[in-house]
Specification:
34% of the residues lie in helices and 22% in strands. By secondary structure, the chain is of the alpha/beta class. An 8-stranded mixed β-sheet has the order 1-2-3-4-5-6-8-7, with helices on both faces. Strands 11-12-10-9-13-14-15 form a 7-stranded mixed β-sheet, with helices on both faces. Strands 17-16-19-18-20-21-22 form a 7-stranded mixed β-sheet, sandwiched between helices. Helix 7 links the parallel strand 9 and strand 10. Helix 13 packs parallel to helix 14, helix 16 runs parallel beside helix 21 and helix 17 runs parallel beside helix 18.
Length: 945
């Protein structure tokens, strides 16, 4: 009889099961299969497990593993017997294994689809979410090997392990027999198990970022002995910002007798620091970084900010150096911001961390900022700083992250942190690339439902050093999908800051109706025109004349805000001439008091060269940091800045509770653009509260479609199926395709017409003529055989022989509007449904709308109305409106097909004629292929390196 140990080589080592994961406390671990080489690691691991945990695992005292046990637990066939280990620093901290069993509970092989599963976690690592992560991964492995159900026997006192199983979200059955709790659960992911997995992912990734942004102690590695240099500058920035934790300076070149640098305790290596270090800022040449990472890992450092350059941005050699850096840091359970990073900032009063190259600490506020490159980070901070005295006021920065090459921590991780960060009301992101569009879209949708997310997206080309998944979607399509997820998409840093300031300072508008008032008729008209251009509904501007007083502005603004037909107000102001004109402070107070009397509607000011008005509106003078007293460190030999006394600047930066500061803009188009984005975002928030549902259709034959797809894929890895097969597959989802018969000769064309019945259409289906009625390759409304033969002769005379034209005859569809429906599965973004009008004009203008699959009924309705040419569907210029409900149903059926069967990687319906009653699909193509891997349905993993 062949033993499972003899089957060790039945499958090669499954390297794709290896993964890095973020644990509940924000640390990281590596999960990998257990092999025969792990015997010593297993024995060492078991020796560190308490007797109680061993008892819970084996239901009896089990002080040590026998040689037979070690052999059994390290020899696997990777099919019927599998073991996984969670490791930190190469050593085991937890294990999990399954053994396939039959109906009698004895060891079995496929097709048996049940397995027993058991865990063991070192006591020191219990409570970190290790078992939950291992369960997700062992379940994914089991599904891959044809196992559909797990069984586990647990002692009733082992409540922690029972909770791991019951909280996982799988469909379960529990029984109690012979003093043991037996749990059985299906491994097919459910809505609840996915929700549990994503909630755990959010908590873990948020905590991993929180550990970086809120460290209790910081070491700057690479502090120069002389003033200047990156390390010395960052050390000074942290000190001058008033960081409230322990600060250390590290450089292996320091003299042994050097006690401190710039009042900060100095050490030659991280290991020499007496207490724990939460964060290390690394500013040494790239070739010395591995030694620093090893020191930090051995000392228990939780995270790294790597400012050093010379990684993937420098070419293939640097790219491999970057991969090695990430692997090394993760082996110690550390996360990395960088390399080639600009740094991080946290303005919270109890943190005040400026671990960046920014020489000044931004003013504390409610805006979170993320950038990738240092240049963009500088631009963002400087733009906010320049407008600090004029517009931002107290609306400064909560946290700032410049991730550099974002080899590890990315925008997705920071989004997870901002989602439930009480200090951040608005998130601003400049994304030069999106590493995981599918995940980013999911996280963005959830974040945008809670707080505004404003994004500048790069042109789609990844900067050097950025690992980005390949996507076949055009840049415009990705942008449209981000908007669908609630992201406020803007094009420049200026627009990013403009929108962020409005959203951070004012309530969301309830609709597009805008009141305009001010002391300049021409500026009011300009604002009015820009509102129309942005799709808003402005009222006629109210001109207060250049002689308007502050009281005039107060009365007019109060009346506008009280008007139920107004959703927002834009106030335009120019310098007034004469001693009676209101001063800046007087006008600002008049506007502020009027807005406070009628809260709930946003107010914006467009000012032209008004000097101090913007400052008065923001009630703040500068984003420069308040003075910080510097004192040499005493406690623990570390540097602690002295408490800062209250200053006039700090007091002025704190408005009364509940006050909405009024943002001011130097140009009408900037103010209106920001307002328009806020209006669209407010509309999305209201619609997101009721996203609709994915309807069920009784006539869909999902199983029949699956059988047909399986039979077709058995012929090849990827193929475009024939017209007949396309019609059969679409028919199983209630999508009829109007029949078209080949017509290689005039006689066969006539025979086809008699079969279909007149009137008919004659079409050339050659690739260069397909769907190109504008080229003359289509003849419509042929009422009899004579017209058909004449049309046939014209086509062959104009375009060539029938074998070149590939003509077909098709019955005429009711007249209507020609449209196109497409669906594609993109490896990076997922399944996308697209809709637009057919024809060269729409293609030339790129007038297509897009939604992520599965599409709900509400999304299908909005999809039809999202294209610029949508009025043609609704009776434009007196034409007859067409049957858009039937069109929406077609879109929903295509969405269901692609969502139910990921093997359907591309669908094109063109043209789809939408008539006053019903729709007709006149042409269709379907491509099948093995579905791309969906990591969003698998276990939690960090990006592979």
């Amino acid at each position: 009889m062949q033993t499972s140990a003899d089957r060790q080589d039945r499958h090669q080592y499954p390297a794709h099961w290896e993964a890095d994961v973020v644990l509940r406390d924000g640390g990281t671990a590596r999960i990998r299969p257990i092999t025969v080489d792990d015997a010593d690691r297993l024995v060492s691991f078991y020796e560190q497990v308490s007797d109680e945990s061993k008892y819970y695992r084996f239901f009896a005292p089990y002080p040590r593993l026998s040689a037979k046990d070690v052999h059994r637990f390290t020899h696997h066939d990777f099919v019927d017997r599998v073991g996984l280990a969670a490791t930190i620093g190469g050593e085991f901290i937890a294990t999990v294994r399954y053994d396939r069993i039959g109906a009698d509970g004895m060891p079995a092989t496929a097709p048996a689809d049940e397995a027993e599963v058991a865990f063991l976690v070192q006591d020191a690592h219990q409570g970190r979410g290790v078992a939950s992560a291992l369960l997700e991964h062992i379940a994914a492995v089991a599904r891959e090997r044809g196992i559909r159900r797990f069984a586990a026997e647990v002692l009733p006192a082992n409540t922690k392990m029972i909770k791991v199983f019951t909280d996982a979200g799988y469909t379960q059955k529990r029984s109690f027999e012979d003093g043991v709790v037996r749990l059985e659960f299906d491994l097919e992911p459910t809505d609840r198990s996915l929700a549990v997995q994503r909630a755990r992912e959010q908590r873990a990734e948020a905590r991993s970022v929180r550990r970086l942004l809120m460290p209790g102690s910081v070491a700057v590695v690479g502090v120069g002995r002389a003033p200047g240099g990156v390390g010395r500058s960052v050390l000074g920035n942290i000190r001058d910002a008033g960081y409230g934790g322990l600060l250390h300076a590290v450089n292996k070149a320091f003299p042994e007798n050097l006690g401190e640098v710039d009042g900060v305790p100095a050490y030659r290596c991280v290991r020499d620091i007496g207490g724990p270090v939460d964060l290390a800022v690394v500013a040494v040449p790239a070739e010395h970084v591995p030694a620093v990472v090893a020191e930090c890992g051995e000392h228990g450092v939780q995270g790294l900010v790597v400012l050093s350059a010379g990684y993937a941005e420098s070419g293939p050699e640097g790219r491999e150096r970057q991969r090695a850096l990430v692997r090394q840091a993760r082996a110690y359970g550390m996360r990395i911001i960088g390399p080639n990073a600009f740094g991080i900032i946290n303005t919270a009063p109890d943190v005040r961390l400026n671990a960046s190259l920014a020489p000044e600490m931004p003013r504390p506020g409610r805006i979170g900022m993320f950038a990738q490159s240092g240049a963009i980070g500088i631009a963002l901070l400087s733009r906010l700083h320049r407008r600090g005295g004029g517009v931002t006021g107290v609306t400064g920065v909560s946290t700032f992250v410049s991730a550099g090459n974002r080899a590890d921590v990315s925008g997705n991780d920071v989004l997870q942190y901002w989602y439930d960060d009480p200090e951040t009301d608005v998130a601003l992101m400049y994304l030069e690339s999106i590493g995981n569009p599918r995940k980013f879209t999911r996280l963005a949708r959830r974040t945008a439902a809670a707080k505004p997310l404003v994004v500048v997206q790069g042109d789609g080309s990844a900067p050097p050093g950025h690992a980005v998944r390949a996507t076949r979607l055009p840049h415009a399509t990705v942008s449209a999908l981000l908007r669908q997820a609630g992201v406020i998409r803007v094009d420049t840093i200026t627009e990013l800051v403009d929108a962020g300031l409005l959203l951070a300072r004012q309530p969301l508008p309830a609709g597009p109706r805008v009141a305009i008032l001010g002391n300049s008729e021409s500026l009011g008209v300009l604002t009015y025109d820009r509102c129309l251009a942005e799709g808003l509904r402005p009222s006629r501007p109210l001109d207060l004349t250049t002689g308007a007083t502050a009281q005039d502005f107060h009365r007019a603004l109060g009346a506008a805000l009280a008007d139920e037909t107004c959703d927002s107000v834009v106030v335009t102001a120019i310098p007034a001439i004469g001693e009676a004109s209101p001063g800046d402070a007087e006008l600002a107070e008049a506007l502020r008091s009027a807005a406070a009397a009628v809260p709930g509607k946003p107010v914006l000011v467009v000012h032209v060269e008004l000097g101090g008005l913007a400052e008065a509106l923001s009630a703040a003078a500068s984003t420069a940091p308040a003075a910080v007293e510097k004192a040499p460190g005493t406690e623990g030999g570390a540097h602690r800045p002295a408490d800062r006394p209250p200053t006039a600047t700090a007091e002025a930066a704190s408005p009364p509770e509940g006050t909405h500061l009024i943002p001011a803009y130097p140009a009408a188009e900037r103010a209106v653009r920001a307002l328009a984005e806020a209006v669209r975002y407010g509309q999305w928030r209201r619609e997101a509260a009721d996203p609709g549902k994915v309807p069920e259709y009784d006539d869909i034959d999902e199983r029949g479609a699956a059988r047909l797809i399986g039979e077709l894929l058995a012929r090849g890895e990827g193929l475009t199926i024939s017209d007949a097969e396309t019609c059969e597959l679409l028919g199983k989802y209630g999508i009829p395709v109007r029949r078209a018969l080949p017509a290689p000769t005039p006689d066969t064309a006539a025979e086809a017409a008699r079969t279909l019945g007149y009137p008919v259409a004659l079409k050339a289906t050659a690739p260069h003529l397909r769907h190109r009625a504008d080229l003359g390759g289509v003849r419509l409304d042929l009422a009899d055989e004579e017209q058909l033969r004449r049309a046939y002769a014209e086509l062959t005379e104009l375009f060539g022989k029938p074998e070149e034209l590939r003509p077909v005859v098709q019955g005429m569809a009711p007249r209507g509007v020609d449209t196109v429906v497409r669906a594609v599965i993109d490896p990076a973004a997922g399944a996308v449904l697209s809709f637009g009008l057919a024809g060269a004009a729409s293609q030339l203008l790129g007038d297509m709308a897009h939604r992520l699959v599965p599409v709900t009924d509400r999304e299908a309705t909005s999809l039809v109305r999202s294209i610029r040419t949508a009025p043609l569907l609704f009776g434009w210029r007196g034409s007859t409106p067409v049957d858009t409900p039937a069109l929406e149903e077609l879109l929903l059926r295509v969405s269901r097909l692609v969502d139910d069967h990921p093997e359907v990687v591309a669908v094109t319906l063109e043209p789809v004629v939408v008539a006053p009653y019903g729709v007709s699909v006149l042409g269709a193509t379907v491509r099948l292929a093995p579905p791309p891997a969906r990591d969003d349905l698998g276990p939690r993993t960090m990006p592979a390196y």
